[in-house]
Design goal:
This protein is 31% helix and 25% strand. It is α/β, with parallel strands linked by helices. The protein folds into 2 domains: 32 residues, no CATH class; 231 residues, Rossmann fold (3-Layer(aba) Sandwich), CATH 3.40.50. Strands 1, 2, 3, 4, 5, 6, 7, 8, 9 and 10 form a 10-stranded mixed beta sheet that branches. The N and C termini lie far apart (61 Å). One of its GO terms (molecular function) is methyltransferase activity.
Amino acid sequence: MTTLSVSGNTRSILKGAAQRAAHAFSPLRAAVGRLHYLSPLPRRFTGAYGTFEAAMTAARRQPMAGYDHEEIASVSFAKMCQVAPWDYPVLFWMRSLMPTVDGLIDAGGHMGTKYRAFRPLLSLDGSFRWIVYDLAAIVRAGRSLAERDGLTGLSFVDRIEDAGATPLFLGSGLMQYLDMPLSDLLKRLPSLPPHLILNKVALRKGGAVVTLERIGKTHVPYHMRDEATFIDDVTRLGYRLVDRWSIPSLSHVIDTHPELGRSESAGFYFRLD
């Protein structure tokens, strides 16, 4: 039997050839992506913009823009009330913290979907405060549904200032839809929460990009953040990064801009020192 050995020089040549091929195909990938604009088929992600505001301006050219609509509040609601594989790191840290915290602010918590999903797995007694902060239309729908279902431990605010001081800040699926740095939102609270758990944060290399995500009948700005900038924004407030996990199944390519590459989805636990 003959064993083939590839020298370091040969590997370097092959790597260079692969990189040149990828670079050569990049314009073709871009052209194919732009053709998606002309396709009659629905696209999940469309366009690439430098800011949230620019993306929202583009979204307003569509029949419906943004998430603040009661008619889309129920889109995928039942599915979001189920525990997903990427929820388990969140549950791990929440169970560790439960003996020391008496409540949380669930920012971007929709109609209380994580409360409904996690309640059977966490010891939430009657004194635990689970406060959802979201857009006004989502809050109205969530509050009505919680009253119907008798969920007295679940409350809602559409102004985060009204949540009061809480020891834990949960943002599961918040960051890609937030129109500001996280620090700006946290500083609107009476005091900084000692614990931050953030999940499904959309990240990419080479700078932030905002695209438009199609959710039901509406188009919503979807922020793929630069990770170093994101972490620096949080740690400048005095938080220390304790844990980070990756969620490969939630990585996305912008249909109309595939040359920008795939995003990464990740979760984080920060503690205030």
